[in-house]
Amino acid sequence: MSSDHKAIVAEGLGKSYWVGGHMLIDRMGMHALVDRALKAPVRIISRLASNQKPASHFPEIPGHMKWAIRNVSFSVDQGEVLGIVGHNGAGKSVLLKLLSRITRPTEGRARLHGRVGSMLEAGTSFHGELTGRENIQLSGAILGMPRPRIAALMDEIISFSEVEEYIDTPVKRYSTGMILRLGFSVAAHLDTDIMLIDEVLAVGDQRFKRRCVDKMRSVASSGKTVLFVSHDMDVLKQISDRAILIREGSLIMEGAPEHVVAEHVRYTGKS
Amino acid sequence: MIRGVLTAFKDRRETIYINPPSGIPKLELLEVWRNWDIILILAQRDIKVRYKQSFAGIGWAIIQPLLTMIVFTAVFAGVVNVNTHDSPYPLFSLAALVPWSYFVHAITKATGCLVVDQDLIKRVYFPRLVLPISAVIGGLVDFAIAFVLMLILLLVYDWAPNLKLLLLPFFLLFAILTALALGLWLSALNVQYRDVNNALPFFTQLMMFVSPVAYPASVIPEKWQMVYALNPMATVINGFRWVLLEEQPNPGIYSLISVAVVMIALVGGLYFFRWQEDRFADVV
Questions:
Q1: In terms of pTM, does the model score above 0.95?
Q2: DSSP strands (E only) in A149-256
Q3: What is the ipTM of this complex?
Q4: Domains plus CATH for chain A?
Q5: Please, what sign has the CA dihedral across residues A28, A29, A30, A36?
Q6: Which of B3, B36, B123, B278 best probes binding to A when mutated, by most A CB atoms within 10 angstroms?
Q7: What is the pLDDT of residue B8?
Q8: B18 touches chain A (CB under 8 A)
Q9: Distance between CA A48 and CA A43 in Å, rounded?
Q10: How does pLDDT run across A197-227, given as a tens digit for each residue?
């Protein structure tokens, strides 16, 4: 089968960050910067006079490049559910950020076929001063739901979140659990071809968690392509068709969820 | 092979390509247009939020230009005696203060928008241009309220509307574009250098002195009029006065300089913003 039928194809994705300050002032210090600026005319004239090329624009910069992920290649079939396993800081979230276009890769490329919905943290687009209902409209629109669709799904979203009683209260009066539930509920009703999900399953109490997992399962079986990161190995094994393991920014294993999770657990136990 | 082509043809779902940034960025204004819903809902959010837990509420949109007008009238009509081309000074100054207040409000909102909404930028994808655009559009509600105040004052002075009023939307649009053009540059710079936000109140204050808010543009000597028109807000204010007040002169041919300035700043700002955009989520 050609790669045209894949929902997601990633080829050699890499993202590097500068560790140790971004700003010119951070790099050089205020004094050095002012000093350079003041001496610039002298430097330029002497350079012109001697007809020399500048050695370097800036002095040695403290800090170094760090690859958050590098050389990550994989593909996901349409309708497939891919779990991503790895330790904190392994690069799972960076990978999801790249695929959801929040940030751009330093190298490599990826292709996603279909509308993409992402949920990288529940309730992030909420505003504390707005009511639950207003926040559903806001969050839904930002996540890419058309307005009429939000209106049609409103009751369903509210009832799933179990915050009916407080739906017209400003969200700043909500408990953390309530905000997360409402956030998950909005995202769970997104109707996109591809869903990118990070950690949202760690929401609320056991009962709500079970409902989230059920919802996820029905999303997964509805033919959507799902890519999700979770630290809950049991849920991951239940839901995914396939899994990949990321360690220190590299993709080191790909295969059946049980095998990948086993390897991850084995390595965790060792270290 | 043929089957592949057929399925590709049948399948109308869009394909998203993710690449490292390179070369001149594409503006993709069509994508911004498709996200008009987000622009409106963010503007709506800002308006709702601003007046929650506020006693005067939406009244702030009136208080600011009204009090400034009163102080200006006392100083510039009472003490300094500024020439207003025979318009009553309160009308003369309010016709300038209404678009000026909008401008200051819009540019302040636009400059801070990427930092204020950094949680969104770090966690949800949408065209980032939506944020400054929504900031300058949200300010229009305040403008509308202040404009009602203007109309009431005009009626108090026995005003007879004339056809020039139909040109008002153009001058308003020009004010919006001016705020957006500046806002694009300043918001993108503010992501990396928060100095921009700190310098902004000072900058807008200085800009008011070089805009004909308290005085008529005609006090500027003819030979400096061309330089004066480099400030697009001069043209906006001259335009507002001209369409609202019978006695005021038209903005004149030098307005074209203002138009050129705004167009260049706007197109440059769009490219600058798009160029910087790739780093927003990493730097902010």
A1: no
A2: 194-198, 225-229, 242-247, 250-255
A3: 0.80
A4: 1-18+67-115+192-271 (3.40.50.300), 21-62 (no CATH), 129-184 (no CATH)
A5: negative
A6: B123
A7: 47
A8: yes
A9: 9
A10: 886 656 667 888 888 888 877 887 888 899 9
